[in-house]
Design goal:
Elements lengths: L19 H5 L5 E2 L4 H13 L4 E4 L15 E4 L6 E5 L4 E5 L4 H9 L3 E2 L13 H7 L6 H4 L2 H4 E7 L5 E5 L9 H6 L9 E8 L1 E2 L3 E8 L2 H13 L6 E5 L2 E8 L1 H15 L4 E2 L2 H14 L10 E7 L5 H15 L2 E7 L4 E7 L3 H17 L3 E6 L18 H11 L15
Parallel strand pairs: 1-3, 2-3
Antiparallel strand pairs: 4-5, 5-9, 6-10, 7-8, 7-9, 11-13, 11-14, 12-13, 12-16, 15-17, 15-18, 16-17
Helix pairs in contact: 11-12
């Protein structure tokens, strides 16, 4: 289905923009459509006047990847309704502009949750934004990422066409891959208008086991716990501390905490609820953007094989000493995700640390994404590094879905 074209000024925001020449003179307006058809009209207008769009939700991931060369920001925040919720089926369809925290509040009334715990959620991250960035926190170990939890999506392509992929029933896999392809695309292929997720029950009890160990021992401990069939929902290491989280019934959770402690050592302790909340907040703060007082921060995420997490984490510590930057690492010891926070008053120290760590990531066959950096790093840091072997496939997909480069122009530069 194709929506009708619109003419400037945009009818629902008459004061935003009068014509394309106003944009090119330096103004960068924000369009706020409040329906799927209006989103499609915006896309058609942008394509017609060659106005590249920057798709935004809450704006919590605008610094990810390369700088977007956009004339207009297209804000999805008004598409924030619950479109369909079936508590008995544990599925929900919501507008892409809905905050994940608001979704959680809706389903919590039925003892359910969306098993996504990305650090950005408490800053208002939207459903569309979390999917587009493929962002996930420690819960990835048990529940996978956003692409594993989504079962359908509404999409608008660069020609204004509106499409659906997947469905509302979990077993319906028709068109499923198209929706999943949007995960991690950073808004560069199409616009997500709504997403359908499968949900999980809220756990009756949760508990965190902590042990002060180096990264090598932390990886070995996590492996032993997993091999023993104790099924932790998270296993993370942050600056000398292993954190293993369990969920379930009160009895089942306690039994697994005790079994894990017996398995990995007498110095492993179960944290009190307040202490657990504190250490998990410290974990989230590693990837929280923004300066630490007057000290700017750069945040990068490395994705490697779980067996290489130890090597990459130790490399971060070594590189920090070499560049005289303060480096903090939070690593998913069983998932292969390593977040590194770099703090220094020297832009050159930031740039050197990123470059050295990217080299380590690529040597291990992994990938790195630049998630946040101070403006002083502009021109000093390449957002993406060496193109992957499949870069021609990525370029072909981009060309097929967005030949005019309307969406997210520059986000994946120089890959495409």
């Amino acid at each position: 289905m194709r929506s009708r074209a619109c003419t400037s000024p945009i009818p629902w925001r008459p004061a935003v923009i009068s014509n394309a020449s106003d944009i090119r003179s330096g103004t960068r307006p924000e369009w706020e459509p409040d329906s799927v058809n209006e989103v499609a009209e915006c896309v058609l207008a942008a394509a017609r006047d060659d106005l590249p769009l920057n798709i935004t939700g809450a704006g919590t991931a605008q610094s990810w990847g390369g700088d977007v060369e956009a004339s207009v920001s297209l804000a999805m925040k008004k598409l924030n309704s619950v479109l369909r919720y079936e508590p008995a089926d544990m599925t929900i369809q919501v507008g892409a502009g809905m905050a994940v925290a608001d979704l959680q509040s809706v389903v919590a009334e039925y003892g359910q949750r969306l098993a996504i715990d990305a650090a950005r959620i408490d800053r208002g991250a939207t459903v569309g934004g979390v999917v587009a960035t493929a962002d996930q926190g420690p819960a990835q170990l048990a529940f996978g990422g956003p692409r594993d939890l989504m079962i359908g999506a509404g999409l608008i392509f660069a020609d204004g066409s509106i499409a659906r992929s997947g469905g509302h029933v979990i077993k319906n896999v028709a068109g499923y891959d198209l929706a999943r392809m949007m995960s991690g695309s950073l808004g560069s292929l199409a616009i997500l208008t709504d997403v359908t997720f499968r949900l999980h029950p809220v756990a009756t009890a949760t508990g965190t086991l902590s042990r002060e160990v180096g990264i090598d021992q932390a990886a070995a401990d996590a492996q032993a716990i997993g091999d023993a069939g104790l099924e932790p929902v998270a296993a993370e290491w942050i600056s000398g501390q292993l954190l293993v989280r369990f969920e379930g019934t009160q009895t089942g959770c306690q039994e697994r905490l005790q079994a894990a402690a017996r398995l990995i050592g007498a110095d492993a302790v179960t944290l009190a609820a307040d202490d657990a909340a504190c250490v998990w907040k410290r974990h989230r703060d590693v990837s929280r953007p923004g300066a630490n007082g007057n000290v700017p921060a750069t945040i990068v995420r490395g994705l490697v094989r779980p067996s290489d997490v130890s090597a990459l984490s130790k490399a971060a510590d070594r590189i920090g000493r070499e560049t005289e930057a303060i480096v903090t690492v939070a690593a998913g010891v069983s998932t292969g995700r390593v977040d590194m926070r770099i703090e220094s008053t020297s832009a050159l120290a930031h740039a050197r640390t990123v470059a050295k760590w990217r080299q380590e990531v690529e040597t291990l066959g992994g990938a790195m994404v630049l998630r946040d950096r101070p403006r002083t790093l502009t021109g000093l840091v390449d957002a993406w590094g060496t193109p992957p072997s499949a870069v021609e496939v990525l370029r072909a997909i981009k060309s097929a879905y967005d030949p005019g480069d309307v969406f997210g122009r520059g986000r994946f530069y120089p890959w495409f």
